[in-house]
Structures are given as structure tokens and as C-alpha cells.
Design goal:
This protein is mostly helical. The two termini are about 25 Å apart. It is built from nine helices and no strands. Helices cover about 65% and strands about 0% of the residues.
């Protein structure tokens, strides 16, 4: 149901010439508004901030279903930076709210959550970095890039008796790989791995539940524990394909 609403909203915004960058900016403004509400030390602020975080996640779902500017590298980079900035803004709002409630260690908990998040992101980035190409195929590693031959992207010649169309069918799979997408629902194993990866979607849900049920201190503690679980899971099972952001 949520996917259908997000897809319909994405089509409507595209007809109104709203780009993916525009949706990203809207999500940042919503996150800042959520941080302002979280800075209030009462239940109304927690409820309003949690609702705004839900709208932020809805913007992410809409942006992922927009077809315009899907291959724009600048848009991808802007969305990545905006995702980090909006989360930092939410953490600041939570720290102000905890300090207003009389918790003297609020900023220490916020710093601990940021440190745990930085360690999680650093480990996942290091794990997902591509391995360096070896020079075993005869390539000179000291040669300029323009003089090196891309051995890894060479298409094998057609076998005797085959036409040129056979080679043409091999080239697209080498030069433009496309990750397969599954239209069905997530399996329990994949869902558990995504939760253990503790991506931003999961972190925002944890913040919303913890602030409404208890307070900002429990939200920061849950964020630290979640990042520790994500780091441990990545060290134990590096092949897990969870949510990386």
C-alpha cells in the first residue's frame, strides 16, 4: 500500500516537473522541522517530530521511484550529503530536547551516537570498496592511465562459425551491468539483514519509537547499540547485503 502511494506521488511530482533534487531538499526541510520539535521536552514535541520523520522516509520512498534524473551523479552525491546533514540535525534537536528536560549528559550521549555512527559508516565503506586491480595480466602499473589496457572489460572474440551477433550479446552484460530487482516482498532473512545493517531508515524508526515511548536518552542509547550490532554483524558476516546508507 505504501509503495503504491509513493509511486503515485512520484508520478504526480514528475508531471509537475519536480526533480529528485527537489524531493531531497524537501526531506531536509522536514528533518530540520523534526529537529525543532524534538528540542521540546514534552510528548507533543516527540509525536510531532516522529510524524515529520515519517514524512522524511516517505520522501525517500518517493524519490527512489522517480524516473527523472536517475543516472545523474550530482543528484546522487547531493542526496548522500543531504541524508547525512538531516540526520545530524535530528541528533542536535534530540540533544537540545534532552538538555531541556534536565539531562546533563545529553550532549555526551549525542556525541557517543555520532561516534558509533561514524564507525559504522567507515566500516561499511571500507568493506564495500572495490579491490585494487592486480597487474598479473602483464599490465604495467607505473604506466599512465591512457597507456594501460583495460583487460577486465575485453570481450572475447566470437568462436569460429558464429556471427557477430553473439559478441554483441556479450558486450551489454560487461559494459552496463544492471543489478536485478525483485518485485516481490522481502524474505525474512533479507529483512533481518537490513535491520541488522541499521541503515538510516531503521535509525529514524528507532528514534521515533524511543522518543515517544521513553525519552531522547533511550533514543541515543538505542542508536549506539544498533550501530554496535551493525559493526559486529559486518565483521562476522561480511557477505551480508543490508542497507548501507
Amino acid at each position: 500500500m505504501a509503495g503504491t502511494v509513493a509511486r503515485a506521488t512520484a508520478r504526480m511530482l514528475e508531471r509537475r516537473h519536480v526533480t529528485r533534487s527537489g524531493v531531497t531538499r524537501i526531506s531536509v526541510l522536514l528533518a530540520v522541522a523534526a529537529a525543532v520539535w524534538f528540542s521540546r521536552a514534552d510528548l507533543a514535541g516527540a509525536l510531532a517530530g516522529s510524524a515529520l520523520l515519517g514524512l522524511v522516509l516517505f520522501c525517500d520512498a518517493v524519490r527512489s521511484r522517480m524516473r527523472a534524473n536517475r543516472r545523474d551523479a550530482l543528484t546522487v552525491w547531493t542526496a548522500s550529503i543531504a541524508a547525512q546533514l538531516r540526520e545530524y540535525a535530528v541528533y542536535v534537536g534530540l540533544a537540545f530536547g534532552a538538555a531541556a528536560a534536565g539531562f546533563t549528559s545529553a550532549w555526551g550521549w549525542a556525541a557517543g551516537a555520532l561516534i558509533a555512527l561514524a564507525l559504522r559508516d567507515a566500516l561499511l565503506v571500507a568493506r564495500s570498496a572495490p579491490a585494487a586491480a592486480s597487474g598479473g595480466s602483464g599490465a604495467n602499473p607505473l604506466a599512465p592511465p591512457a597507456q594501460r589496457r583495460a583487460e577486465g572489460f575485453r570481450v572475447p572474440p566470437p568462436r569460429p562459425g558464429s556471427t557477430g551477433s553473439a559478441a554483441a550479446t556479450v558486450a551489454p552484460s560487461v559494459t552496463s551491468p544492471v543489478a536485478p530487482e525483485v518485485d516481490g516482498g522481502l524474505s525474512p532473512v533479507l529483512l533481518a539483514r537490513r535491520v541488522m545493517a541499521f541503515g538510516q531508515t531503521t535509525r529514524f524508526l528507532v528514534i521515533a519509537v524511543a522518543t515517544v515511548a521513553v525519552d531522547a536518552r533511550i533514543a541515543f542509547l538505542s542508536l549506539i547499540v544498533g550501530c554496535v550490532v551493525a559493526i559486529t554483524g559486518e565483521l562476522v558476516d561480511p557477505s551480508s547485503q543490508g542497507e548501507r546508507r
